Amino acid sequence: MAPYESDDSTPAGEVEDVRDGRRRAARYVVPVTVVGVAAATIGLVPAFAGSGDPDLPKISAQQLIEKIAKSDVQQMSGTVTISTDLGLPNLGGLEDSLASGALSQGGGQGKGDSAADPSSKLLELASGTHTVRVAADGQDKQKLSLIEKAAEYSVIRNGDQVWAYDSASNQAYHATGAGEHKSGEAAPKDVPATPRDFADHALKAADKTTSVTVDGTAQVAGRDAYKLLVRPKQSGTTVGAISIAVDAKTGLPLKFTLTPAKGGAAVLDVGFTQVSFAKPAASTFDFTPPRGTKVTQGDDLKAGKAGEAGEAGKAGEVGKAGREAQREDTGTTPWGGASKTLGEGWNAIYVFDTGSKGGVPSGSPSEDGAASGFLNSLGDHVTGKFGSGTVFSTRLVNALITDDGKVYAGAVTKDALLKAANAGK
User: Looking at residue 123, what is its pLDDT?
Assistant: First the structure.
């Protein structure tokens, strides 16, 4: 039966918000929380799977989304391939400079930090193709390993103990008191790496700005799956469609693909190439630092930052996590200014003030030099009622940084950004 649409909409269920560990990286690079920006709301449109291979029972889009929400995979392991193509230029060594500078502002590899701190690895997933091994056993045991050419980076959670190990630098990071994780997740939430991580973002809310249908069936990693197709009804967005392959038996998303409105290769493609729902060996979640490893304790990082801040450090004794929580509670940006959202659904534009004249946030000379080179390689100078500024574009997320320090960003076209900025004046 061919898919059909209805104006009825039903909330997709509450889905935990992923902690914005990439907020620090957005200091210089336009926000690339791809799914969070692009799919803020989803309208559930009843539809039925047509004939296909494999041949599965018919299911509505609403039923399939409910199946995802109710998925309770406690034990799993597998290999995931993550491919990201935002259309960024080849930055060479500049990418590392940007990451180092941005992260040093909020908990990356600054003085007293560790190369094994998970926050220092987030930017690596923003471009190129990566292979990740994942495993989970219940609520308190997860492991994620990023496989590189001549090295491996792993994050392991076992009870309230979290270890991260970077074999390239022979450094380890250790923290205690990890929070709860949803079943089926394989790593702390600041490391989104599985199709479920991204699907949860896309299905966290619902309205009528989106068409959601079941688009047949497929096989992913040897598993029978339904294909959930998410398309914006609004014009002006850079998002073409999101496809989520959902395991027919367990409801676990097996593959997530986001394609741009202009066509071409997927901007984001995350999928299992191998998956098993057998109980992983207990030893999978054991970790002992190899001999000679430099180990940094999470509390040591917080103490080091407070010391560097002098008297201001007294107020920062709550540590990095506390400061981030305060920002979330007050709705402020990393620069301390208020943020707001213009528009809705796929056309949402996020606006905030960096407080920096000239369009580029202030920082150290080395950071500004790296940022300036990067931004100049992407930017187009524009003018309007708002004054003047520069538009920085990727294949999905675009951002306007005005010369008076305001930022307009979203998964929308350049014209939509300029219209929003002009209306703001």
Answer: 67
